[in-house]
């Protein structure tokens, strides 16, 4: 079992920045693909960014956040981050942390943290 707890959400102005954290417990997350997803009101949950297992980790991003968001992991702290810069109102959503063990290790979700971008 993996427990994921997101933090760092809040209100930001357009053009501002926030950093989300996802603290994991129960298992080390270095063996999981870690991801951030978001769900805006009335919309389906969508992938924002993912990072593969290991110390290096390959990343991929939704086109809408490329160049603005950066996902990273600190395996020593069992934590994943999402640095969000140049925020836009359309980034407003609940952001969820995900740990994907590719079937064998299970898949886990946090409860989410709300990000609101508004002037």
Summarize the structure in words.
The chain is an all-beta fold and 119 residues long. Helix content is 0%, strand content 50%. The chain has no helices and 11 strands. Strands 2, 4, 5, 6, 9, 10 and 11 form a 7-stranded mixed sheet that branches. It is globular, with a radius of gyration of 14 Å.
Question: What labels would you give this structure?
Answer:
single chain, 119 residues, mainly beta, seven-stranded mixed β-sheet, 0% helix, 50% strand, globular
Helix content: under 10%
Number of helices: 0
Estimated share of beta-strand residues: over 45%
Q: Ends: how far apart?
A: 40 Å
The chain-level mean pLDDT equals 94
Strand tally is: 11
The major sheet is characterized as:
7 strands, mixed
Radius of gyration from CA coordinates:
14 Å
Instruction: Give the CA-based shape.
Output: globular
SSE topology string: EEEEEEEEEEE
Question: Would you identify the regions where 5 or more consecutive residues have pLDDT less than 50?
Answer: none
Oligomeric assembly: single chain
Structural class based on helices, strands and sheet pairing: mainly beta
């Amino acid at each position: 079992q993996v427990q994921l707890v997101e933090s760092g959400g809040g209100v930001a102005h357009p053009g501002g920045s926030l950093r989300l954290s996802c603290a994991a417990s129960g298992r080390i997350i270095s063996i999981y693909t870690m991801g951030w997803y978001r769900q805006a009101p009335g919309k389906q949950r969508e992938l924002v960014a993912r990072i593969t297992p290991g110390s290096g980790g390959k990343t991929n991003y939704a086109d809408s956040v490329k160049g603005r968001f950066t996902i990273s992991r600190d395996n020593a702290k069992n934590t994943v981050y999402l640095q969000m810069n140049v925020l836009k109102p359309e980034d407003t959503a609940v952001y969820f942390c995900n740990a994907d063990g590719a079937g064998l290790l299970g898949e886990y979700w946090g409860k989410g943290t709300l990000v609101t971008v508004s002037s």
